[in-house]
Design brief:
Elements (H helix, E strand, L loop, with lengths): L1 H17 L23 E7 L12 H14 L4 E6 L5 H15 L5 E7 L2 E5 L5 E5 L13 E2 H10 L4 E9 L19 H4 L4 E8 L7 E2 L2 E2 H13 L8 E2 H15 L7 E7 L4 E3 L15 H20 L4 H14 L4 H14 L3 H14 L4 H13 L3 H14 L4 H15 L2 H13 L5 H10 L11
Parallel strand pairs: 1-2, 1-3, 3-7, 7-8
Antiparallel strand pairs: 4-5, 5-6, 8-12, 9-10, 11-13
């Protein structure tokens, strides 16, 4: 066991040295107060107005809003705040947006705000379209007692939340959006990095002036939204559900089912973050809109390799490390160093000698100038009891790197314990010591091989 551990440590150190040119300096990722997961707390504020004081009634609005609130509870949101009818007065809405949420929502939280009710579009002094939402006690067209999109944007700027998503069950537009971003974020490489990007997003049920379709007396937008939140919007089935995916799913589904009469709008209001609605396995994050060009695929493979190596170095989740290595090979099947590390993992960490042997042979094929290819192949042959093949592979490793200290030590053990050739064992251990090794097994073997000097004759 000690010898296995010794080999592992030496092998990983040497692999680490070969990765220096690939690995970037580690960022100071840990910060005081940072959550273990993506968010500290998840907030959903569900606002529904059905029985307006001064505007026409919207039948079924509260029932459907409650269904949306239930969906967010099913998604694991910690706080689901529901405001209906009289609780959606102009004063209460202002207090919620200007005081309650800014005080409660933290910088590592996510916030989703759903609104169903009347809405409209007006123009500001410069002629720009300006959307607004109508509270319970306001009239349609009375912008002074409504919540404008500019106020929503101002709220999003004041809110500390990392990700904010507005879901507006209304036919409305009228906002300034930031430069379009390449969503979904799943096409990028690392959830640890990209989910740190702040983002404010909005999805509306339709464009201004459109009639919102009802199917069997229920809102088409809400039906499709609930289907999307249940996981159907995760079309690539990688376990991650992003706001951008829900937006694309709702837009396409509503347009198709309404026969082109209702067009939901999805926009990035600020930042380039993407709200995570369902967090999947981190190793599956990149299974979304993946890299396309050969250069992009090589870069993706390199990043998967580096992340796998980091997991192994820290002793975290070897299963995930193996998944990342397999993903790297999907991107670039000729990436020889991935085969080297895969063969080692399957030899010593997650033992599977047949799979390890296959990976090692491919490593020799694709990176013959990497001595670790032959060295790992030799270790696998040794464990399989194929000692002649093990000796040959280790000798090939020394052809590539004649000063590979670990290989001499492993050859010394192979000759001593399995092939039973003590002279060759001593020769290998001697070279190991000459290169700077100091393992007790090698020291003892070389010391025992030296002839005992004759003692000087005693004087008469």
């Amino acid at each position: 066991m000690l010898l296995i551990l010794y080999r592992q440590s030496l092998f990983l150190v040497l692999l680490a040295s070969s990765l220096i040119a690939l690995l970037c300096p580690s960022s100071a990722f840990a910060q005081a107060g940072k959550p273990e997961g993506l968010y500290y707390k998840s907030w959903a504020v569900v606002i529904g107005v059905e029985n307006y004081l001064l505007a026409p009634k919207i039948p079924g609005a509260i029932e459907e809003a409650r269904a949306v609130a239930h969906a967010f509870r099913q998604l694991g949101f910690d706080e689901v705040v529901e405001l209906y009818d009289k609780d959606v007065s102009f004063r209460r809405l202002q207090q919620t947006l200007a005081d309650f949420l800014p005080r409660k929502v933290g910088r590592y939280d996510r916030l989703v705000l759903y609104f169903v009710g009347h809405a409209g579009v007006t123009q500001d002094l410069s002629g720009k379209e300006l959307g607004y939402l109508v509270p319970w006690d306001a009239q349609i067209g009375n912008v002074s007692k409504s919540v404008t999109f500019e106020q929503l944007k101002e709220f999003s700027r004041r809110s500390a939340s990392k990700h904010t998503l507005f879901l507006l069950n209304a036919a409305v537009r009228g906002w300034e959006v930031s430069t379009a971003q390449p969503l979904s974020l799943e096409g990028r490489m690392a959830p640890e990095d990209d989910t740190e990007r702040r983002g404010v997003q909005v999805l509306t049920a339709g464009d201004k002036g459109q009639v919102l379709i009802q199917e069997q007396g229920k809102s088409l937008f809400v039906q499709v939204l609930l289907d999307g939140l249940s996981g159907q919007a995760d079309r690539n089935k990688n376990g991650w559900l992003m706001a951008s995916e829900v937006g694309d799913y709702v837009k396409q589904s509503v347009v198709e089912r309404s026969k082109g009469t209702q067009h939901p709008l999805f926009a990035q209001l600020d930042g380039d973050g993407d709200t995570v609605l369902i967090e999947g396995r981190r190793s599956a994050f990149v299974l979304g809109a993946g890299p396309q060009s050969p250069a992009e695929r090589r870069q993706a493979a390199k990043q998967q390799y580096e992340q796998a190596f980091a997991l192994l170095q820290t002793g975290k989740s070897p299963e995930e490390a193996l998944e990342r290595l397999n993903k790297a090979l999907e991107y670039d099947p000729t990436f020889g160093d991935v085969y080297v590390l895969t063969s080692y993992v399957l030899l010593e960490v997650l033992p599977n000698l047949d799979a390890a042997l296959s990976a090692a042979k491919l490593a020799v094929q694709y990176v013959p100038k990497n001595p670790d290819s032959q060295y790992t192949l030799g270790l696998i042959y040794e464990k399989r009891g194929q000692y002649v093949e093990a000796e040959r592979a280790m000798r090939e490793a020394l052809v590539v790197n004649p000063n590979y200290l670990d290989v001499y030590f492993s050859l010394g053990l192979l000759y001593a314990d399995e092939i039973k050739d003590q002279p060759k064992s001593v020769e290998a251990f001697t070279r190991y010591l000459e290169l700077g090794g100091n393992h007790a097994r090698a020291l003892a073997a070389v010391a025992q091989s030296r002839p005992v000097a004759p003692s000087a004759p005693s004087k008469p």
